[in-house]
């Protein structure tokens, strides 16, 4: 029994082997058998497919078959090929094979090279072509020795398995990139909301200042009006009392003087009575004006109370806006922490730190929202620097656990954080 042995020089020897041993087997069968059929069964010509997938596209599968040698030797695919013709054609093609060896080497290198991972956008391909050729030659030299069709089948199965693994990794990468884009969009939206809330806060503060100034001006005006009313009231009372005293003195003098002149004084008394009635009317009018002034003072006091109530309402709206601003800043902190953790996880640097603990530390140190990303990245880098070097299996396990913990913690914290209300009071 003929047992072929292969040198580990690559796929070219395998392909050249499958062209010659078939002829030897056919001649051996012709000497032993008397029938006209020389070769009854041919082993299937192996097809070695090399496929590599990139992030941009999956390149077409390139088949390596010994069709070129079959065409050069004018072999027919039928089982009844004449052995003498085959031997003559082999001798003729042996001279041409030596010249085409270099071409076959280059073609095999191109086929094996295919669409290598260097075509991916993340890989920086070298500009020098000789480096590429040397790298591919080293890959070909390190290929395993193929001794039978089972090895070819195993190699093909390994290629398909690697292709499936690469496609799965690409799908995972695309999902992670989509999650990253969604998180960045949420971050942009939160930053916009923060800016809007800051603008609202500024506007409310300006309104509060304006209202305070208006209240101060109104209080000053009220004080001035009250002082002026008090002065008028005092002046009017003083004039009335003076007039009353003068009138009484006059009356007494008239009484003493009118004892002798009763007839004359009666008429004068009537005149004085008329004057008294006039004075009483004037007093009534003055009392009415005083009552009106009192009513005006009460109205002004009620206006002052209303203005104080409005001031309290403005203070309550300010407190509510501060609460919403705090909740929005908390959401921003959690989203930035999640995005940084995902980026570190993409670089295979998982982190088990709790985002709630980081948030409490940030509140304690009073870090502004613009410095959240820097502060979180510093804390995570300190955490990674303090960690001891771990085994690769442990790192894979921690990657899985950190992804689950980060997602659960962020979801819990976001559910605990108060909802933003856009209602105006």
Automatic annotation (TrEMBL):
Organism of derivation: Dictyostelium discoideum
Bias (Low complexity) ranges: 47-66, 87-99, 401-410
Protein name: Uncharacterized protein
Compositionally biased intervals (Polar residues): 115-125
Coiled coil: 152-214, 262-317
Start and end residues of each stretch annotated as Disordered: 31-129, 388-425
Alphabetical keyword list: Coiled coil
